[in-house]
Structure formats: C-alpha cells, structure tokens
Specification:
Elements (H helix, E strand, L loop, with lengths): L7 E4 L2 E4 L1 H5 L6 H7 L2 H6 L8 H7 L8 H4 L4 H10 L5 E5 L6 H10 L4 E3 L4 H8 L6 E6 L6 H16 L4 H5 L2 E5 L4 H9 L2 E4 L13 H9 L5 H11 L9 H14 L4 E6 L7 H13 L7 E5 L12 E7 L16 E4 L2 H19 L9 H14 L8 E3 L2 E4 L8 H10 L6 E7 L11 H9 L3 E5 L7 H7 L4 E8 L14 H17 L5 E6 L2 H16 L1
Parallel strand pairs: 3-4, 3-5, 5-6, 6-7, 8-9, 8-10, 10-11, 14-15, 14-16, 16-17
Antiparallel strand pairs: 1-2, 2-11, 12-13, 13-17
Helix pairs in contact: 7-12, 13-16, 14-16, 15-16, 15-20, 17-21, 18-22, 19-22
Length: 548
Amino acid sequence: MTQDLGSAEAAAGLTVHGAEAVDASAPGSTRAALVADDAPRRLATKDATLWGPDAEAEASKRLGWVDTHQRSRELLPQLAELKAELADLDHVVLAGMGGSSLAPEVIARTLGRPLTVLDTTDPGQVRAALGDRLLNTVVVVASKSGSTVETDSHRRAYWQAFLDAGLTEAEAGRHFVVVTDPGSPLADTAAQMGAFVVLADPNVGGRYSALTAFGLVPSALAGVEVVELLDQAEELAGSLAGDKDNPGLALGAALGTAATVGRDKIALISDGTGIEGLGDWAEQLIAESTGKGGVGILPVVVESPQAPGATGSDVLTVTYGGALTPGTSPGAGIAPDLAVNGPLGAQFLAWEYATALAGVVLGIDPFDQPNVTESKENTNRILDGGLPAETPSFTAGSIEVYAPAGAPGDLPGVLRWLLDGLGSDGYLSVMAYLDRFGDADAGQVRPLLADASGRPVTFGWGPRFLHSTGQYHKGGPQVGSYLQITGAVAEDLPVPGKPYTFGELQAAQAAGDRQALAGRSRPVLHLHLTDRAAGVSQLLDAVRELRS
C-alpha cells in the first residue's frame, strides 16, 4: 500500500481516502448525481421514497438505523442492571445468525472482550460450546423474528443442558437473555422460560442492527463500554446530510460507481490497525443489500494485504481500520483503491449509509432479501422427506466427490475444471458446512484457490453464510461457481423437542442450498469428507497441486 490515494473526506474521526478517483472513473460523476437528487439529505432524514415506489413500503419500515444510535441510549440503564444481575455468569454465549451475531463478534474481537458466538448447526461445534463452563454461562438468544431455526435449536440445546446439569426451570431461565422484536414469538417463549428480555428497534433490519440491542446486549455483557460506540456514531451522524465533508457519501458514491463501471467485486481487507473482523460484518451488509434482481456488489473478505485475490480488473480493493493512512503499509501487499479509517461505531454507521446509497445508484431496494427463504424452504422439505439419494461421481481417499456431468474423474482435475469455468467475470464461492474452529484449516483453501484461479474467491462457513452471501448467490449476477464442502459427523447431537439432530439439520441445509444453486444452472461441486481432518489435508494438497 504505497501509492497516494489522493484526496480524503473526513468527519468525526472517520476518513475515506481515494473516493474521488473512483468517482472519476465513470463517464459522469455518481456523487454529483446523488447530490443533485438531494440523496444525502433525504437518506439522513429517512425519506422512504429514495429507492423508488416499489421499495417505498419496505423502506418505510427499515430506516430506523439512521438514528437508532440515539434511541439505543435508552437501553443503557437496562444493560447496566443486566450486567449487575448476571455478574456471576462470566461466560457469554451469543446464539444468533447473520445480523444478530456478526456485529457483536466484531465489537468483541476489536475491543478484546471474550464472547462465544454460536452461529452453526455443526454438532461438534455446538457440543464444544455446551461443554464450556456451562454453569457460568449466560446465553444471549438473538432473533428478530424468533423463528430462526438455528437459533431456536441452540436455545433448546442449552435449556436441556441446564436441566440435565441439575438446575430447576426457574434457575435455568436466569441463564438466558432474549433479544428480539416486540411481539415476536420468541418474546412469548422467553416469558415462559423466565428469561430476561430486551426488545430491539423494530424499524431496523437485521443487517443494519449493529447499534441496536442486537449489537449492544451481548457486547455489554461481555464487558464492552457500548456507550462509546454510540458516541462515535453520533459524532458522524451530523455529517451525513451534507454535500461536502461527508465520508458516508464519498464511500457510497464510490461503491456505486465501481459497480456501474464493471468493478462489482469489493475486496475487504483489514489494514492491521485494530479493527478485527469488520469485513465479515460488511460482507453480509453489502451482499444481502445489493445482490438481487441480477445485479449486486460481491464482497470478498481477504485475510491480509498480502493474501491472493484482492485485486483484478473487476475488483475494488478496500482497506479498513483505525489509523492507516495513504503512503503507509503494515507490510508488503496490495495498494488499495479506498481506505476507510476511523472508530468502530462510526464505521458501522458509515458502511450502512454507504450501502443504502449504493442501492440508489444500482436501482435496487437495499432493505429486502427476496431469495433468502429459498434455501430455508428447501431445508424444511428435506427435513420432512429425508435427504435426496445421491451417488458419488468418484471417491478419492477421504473425499467423496459429487460433480456435474462431464466433469473429470480425479480430484485435481475436477477442481481445475471448476476454476477454468469461471471465465473473465465469474467468481468462486467456497461453502464449508463444517466446524469453523475444529476444522479451521479448511479456510486455507480460499487464498490457494484465488492464487490458482486469478479470480475472486469467497469463503463462508455454513449455514452462517446463508444469512449473508446466500442472498447474493441466488439474487445477484448469475456468474458464480460453487464448491460445497461437507463432513461426516463422528458424534451427533439431538435437537431437544425436534424430530431431527443437529447433524441432520446441517446436512439438510447443505442439500437445500445445493438444490437452490443447481436450479439456476450454476456449477456446484460437492465434496464430502468421510474423515474431516484427512479430507481437509487432502483437499489442500490437491489445490496446491493446481498451483505447481
């Protein structure tokens, strides 16, 4: 990162470098068009007509994030009472998916506070969480609708675990804090459990909820002084209605410009200066907000400035962090197109604002998610009727390979076939329905495949990514190819009160997503690891062979 990114736009400690050059890459200025439409002021004042008549009804219910940082201050006394009441429960587990889990994870990682995030159906990962300091655990069950199958399963598993440990139902209820929207089914369930309940802002969609109760409750219980995040957002908010000195406008115009001139993939890279994991949160925000109607911006989370896959003719390279400035670098690596620097609370609000403006530029509704339910419906059908019968195309060591017709019959060959089919505008998505801690080495496949293909490669842990890039896979440009990895379950775990296990739920989710992708005539290569550790090692060796 050695080049001068040129002019910068700053307010309240948040600075966006390089946006002017990106805006200038289009035939006409996107920023000027947004200003001419009075978009900055209209967004800052929650004008639901900004995205057109088709989006108005949804937008009118989803713009609370613009100033939720103000209303969230009303939560502070309740959070203080909760912390005092639960002071003896020092192990905080967050059971939530997507927007209910990603922001608290960023907050806790960035500020160095311990928080266990449970956003998986992998039985091994769930079992490990259940076995960790159970009687010192408080479980934050977070779901806007209250019907999220993963989160409901986690709640059931912890409830049963507390009872099995000898607690009465009244004692078990004290170990739960429920965050949900007013009137949701989960609010009623929480009352029956005797759990603590914190109601969230109902006018904020999940992926825009970082500064609502969904982001603040688990963070506060983990020991974060959340008022600082609200202060940082509040300081930035005063700039967002203006035409000048508005970093949110600069970022939003740059994202929209890049997408309209063919740079519709955005590489998100931490600059190493203190903000940890923001890319995972922004990935969901951008992918689920923009990937619909055959258009969208594909976020690609890259491990470091030195990792492959951060550049390309159709890639906008963006670093984020707390202090890095143009002309400096944490080490040899890429030169970003944009650098977004500033405190975490301001980052949350700026990216939300910028994503909403990018929706204006792209002509889409950034608040709906029309394709998210498809894989869920497929999963429910499979749970009711059983997994579809499938025969491997071939078996290589510890890997059963399920490949499309006409693909090669060896592991390196079928992987090369998948990469060769990406073309000049495609991307590869690796979807690993595994234990993201126990099988963490599987994540090494992303940079290896990016290096071997020269194309953008994303990596998601299933079913976590279904609440993130899953919308983009189905609703965005249909240029993706997909590598799904599943693994044998050594020891399954029942979902209390349900006729299925966590392993069966995980397998049904993977199969349901395969069906949704294959139904779009996109290439899906499924690798099932009959031995997880050996299979991951074998896969990595096969990918390295592609690079030699």
